[in-house]
Amino acid sequence: MNIKVVRGNPTPEELAAALAVVRARAAAAAATPSGAEPPSDAWSDPSRIAAHRVPRPGPTSWTRTYWPS
């Protein structure tokens, strides 16, 4: 891996910190299985709402159609 400073004059400490970040990201990407899915957010999961029973029909059922009771 070649790293080239295009602009500026970083100190050896700044260059070492930047290289450490690049190497850590590369190691994390290599350690992640290629078929792994990112963790899903529970709030955006449609099964969270669908997991509850459907409200019974009636004159006020429209108030309970979106949020589970």
- Which shape, going by the Cα principal axes? elongated
Mean pLDDT: 76
Which structural class do the helices and strands define? mainly alpha
Give the SSE string. HH
Nutshell version of this structure?
The protein has two helices and no strands. With 69 residues, it is mainly α.
Topology:
Blueprint: H1 12-31, H2 46-50
Task: Tell me about this structure.
The protein is mostly helical. 36% of the residues lie in helices and 0% in strands. It is elongated. The model has no long low-confidence stretch (mean pLDDT 76).
Any descriptors?
single chain; 69 residues; mainly alpha; elongated
